[in-house]
Design goal:
Blueprint: E1 5-6, H1 24-27, E2 40-41, H2 43-48, E3 52-59, E4 62-68, E5 76-82, E6 85-89, H3 97-105, E7 111-113, H4 123-129, E8 134-137, E9 151-154, E10 158-162, E11 165-169, E12 178-182, E13 191-195, E14 199-200, E15 207-208, E16 210-212, E17 217-218, H5 221-231, E18 238-241, E19 247-248, H6 252-269
Parallel strand pairs: 6-7, 7-8, 8-9, 13-18
Antiparallel strand pairs: 1-2, 3-4, 4-5, 5-6, 10-11, 11-12, 12-13, 14-15, 16-17, 18-19
Helix pairs in contact: 5-6
Amino acid sequence: MENWICVTCGVQFAASQARPQTCPICSDERQYIGYHGQQWTTLALMKAEGYHNRVKEHEPHLIGIGTEPSFAIGQRALLVQTGQGNVLWDCISYLDDDTVAEVRRLGGLHAIAISHPHFYSSMVEWAERLDTVIYLHEADRRWVMRPDSRIKFWSGETLSLLSAVTLVRLGGHFSGSTVLHWADGADGKGLLLTGDTIQVVADRNWVSFMYSYPNIIPLPGAEVARIRDTIAPYPFERLYGGWFDRIVTPDASNAVIRSADRYIRALEERK
């Protein structure tokens, strides 16, 4: 029995003898089947092929963890270090003994929280090896490919994980798409961790919002306005997207508002 991993999106599946027929996450219109067809791997195969994880400090108490060479959609996870325990934001597919040892050295994990299904990756493997729980919004329950008792589904619009760490459901990309607000980050000015619920674009003074990024399916203006208005009450100096170089600073909260307004204006001007 193997926990097969989809090579295109990086999501790990429940154990089975045979490879799954297809990946429902990649068959959805927000993603795609890889150019060479549906392909699968395992953690053991990835190790044999030379994959490893890189750990990088973005700023004090915020640590990035990403896989080299790049795998699946290439995201990195973020370790938020707080006095009440550490939170792993989003997840990556590859996990080995060295990574487990490094995360333990950095204080272990109080919880894992994930923005949306494209970043579910090997979340259960991480939770088992690091003895923690996973928080997912219940609106995305159907996309869990490896069910496990460590997964805790939450409902509503916000969830307080720790006194200064709040999950905020923004929707848009997925119904349950979530961001993490860390009020104590950036010396008390606040950090927002977004995956690609709010996507940092090539010009890192701006962000954008999409239903599907690879297939370029936009969100309606009203949905972008709702996302803008939902996150507006949360102050944050910097915004960290889902990849090592996707960071907006300074005054990132205003960058989100400006970007949403630009997006809505572009749609209205082209009607």
